[in-house]
Fold:
Amino acid sequence: MKIYNTMSRKKEQFKPMNDQRVKLFVCGPTVYDDAHIGHGRTYISFDMIKRYLEYKGYSVFYLQNVTDIDDKIINRSAEVDADPEVLARKFEKRYQEDMEALGVNGVNLFARATDHVPEIISQIETLIEKGFAYETSTGVYFDEAKFENFGKLSRRNLEDLNVHRVNIDQTKKNPGDFALWKKRDEEPLWDSPWGTGRPGWHIEDTAITEEYFGPQYDIHGGGLDLIFPHHEAEIAQMEAASGKSPMVRYWMHTGFLNVSGEKMSKSLGNFITIRDLLEDHDPQVFRFFVLSTHYRSPIDFSEKTLDQAAKSLKRIQKTVEKLNELLDSSAGNDDDYFSGLLKDYRIKFLESMDNDFNTPEALAHIFNFVKELNKAFEDKTPSEKVLKDIISFFNEFGEIMGFDLAVKSNDGDISGELLDIIKDVRQKLREKKEWALSDDIRGRLNDLGIDVED
Ligand code: AMP
Structure:
């Protein structure tokens, strides 16, 4: 199995530190507002990654931090006149509900920054003792110049880091030195050897990962925007404190989600929360949409691409339904043909997934498989055993991607009756020689995997 490592900018053979156990850490949300569909993109991708690693037989421990101390939280609480802790808990709960709704349920432990202040303080003390951090009147700072390899992940050098900075704290040695502890005397604050205050953002993650994983672990993930400065700072802190390198074997970063070609932002009015999305869209369809693009590529959200995802998913679900029907009704004896097809597509699917989780390619194989199966069913049927093998492959596929494929279209819903109405209307159009419109309806039904024969 190969994974693209942002550190080497190459796909590397995957080899965890401890044989079959994988320690995975992904930067969690800053809980000051509802999660948006960009968060959905990143966390669905890592959910699929965990699912696939487990499918391959690894035992994965997935750790995520929750940033519940941050200027954004403090500013938002002041705006809405709420207690920062109450506000953070509210949005943490809503974040978890949103993830649950998207079928993102693989995180084994959520670790809040506020529950790890002693670990944060202890890591800062180590950095000071080892000469990598210094105290000033405003806080404790990491001394970038002391860490030889600063910039190795983002491939930037110290000169790059020190330019373009505004509001530089004059007490710092270098403009790029970042805060480990911010001295403050207003809430929220904690006691520390340097007086009251609160931790900087970067130290929260390394204190948490050191506590649960130790100074070195397998995979660290997050969105592309976090490579610099956040992940760069994490490497400096942890490797300086422990003297061990590398802190992480594989750095994985997701591409950004844009909306109709533009960056998603409140000021552009194109900001979509997961809650907004799920008001009128199926979470499975959003998952399909996300996984139709490689996790490292940017992804463009639009109603059109979501519609396309809905059609594609429906087509696969229909095929699984057809397989179930065949299992109930007729089984044949064209096993050689169907077993061969299943073997070929299973290999192709797994090869794509083994190649840095190439889900768009893997989905394309599933699509071709679906096409070939439907064509073959016109004059061939496999035995019950081979039908079950094919169904179980679709179940594996559904489990890895997080799709529920066992959906029955006439299970308590009215789609069968609605289809009869559409067919009736179409027949009447044909009687009136409205060929263009009736062909259009047939085409659109076809897109949904429904074949209409006159
Ligand atoms: P935040 O809550 O902004 O700290 O982000 C939490 C995670 O979501 C980070 O890994 C971000 O990189 C990721 N993220 C934020 N916005 C987007 C976006 N538009 N597309 C993809 N990932 C995002």
Summary: The chain has a mean pLDDT of 93. The domain at 303-401 is CATH 1.20.120.640 (Four Helix Bundle (Hemerythrin (Met), subunit A)).
